[in-house]
Amino acid sequence: MINGPLLHPQLLHALAAAGHGARVLVADALYPHSTAAPANATRVYLNLCEGMVPALAVMDAVAQSIAVEEITFMATAEGEASDSVTECQRHLADHRHAGGSEITWSSLDRWAFYAACREPDVCLVVATGERRPYTNFLLTIGVP
């Protein structure tokens, strides 16, 4: 299932153990990583300092390593996509999942997003150094 340039051993292990339908949370530095995800989800802390590692870099590496079927993002308080989400959507526009289809994008408000991230199918939480609020993504793994 792994087929990209990702080198981080703990991320590779968690992604290799995940299967179709499992979900990966890529979260900004402001996200409650320890409480807003299942206790059994693997947590990888890449938030070395502000801006390192940015969410876009993590999203790109993960999308090159697994088949991403859907990406759900946390909508702003106004119900919109943040600038960082729009940037990610543009950057990942060329990524495809099984059968060459485009990745499906959807949004949830803050509390619904937190609820979705607490579901047992979330197997991995990646804490980034991203400081822009509302830069949180829930990726659903598809079939390669």
UniProtKB/TrEMBL annotation:
In its UniProt record, a GO molecular function of this protein is: L-fucose mutarotase activity
Q: Give the UniProt keywords, A-Z.
A: Isomerase
Q: InterPro entries under this entry?
A: RbsD-like_sf, RbsD/FucU_mutarotase, RbsD_FucU
Among Gene3D superfamilies, the record links this protein to:
RbsD-like domain
Show the catalytic activity: alpha-L-fucose = beta-L-fucose; beta-D-ribopyranose = beta-D-ribofuranose
Q: Which domain of life is it from?
A: Bacteria
The Gene Ontology biological process terms listed for this entry are: fucose metabolic process
Question: What is the protein's given name?
Answer: Uncharacterized protein
What species does this protein belong to? Halomonas huangheensis
Instruction: Recite the lineage of the species.
Output: Bacteria, Pseudomonadati, Pseudomonadota, Gammaproteobacteria, Oceanospirillales
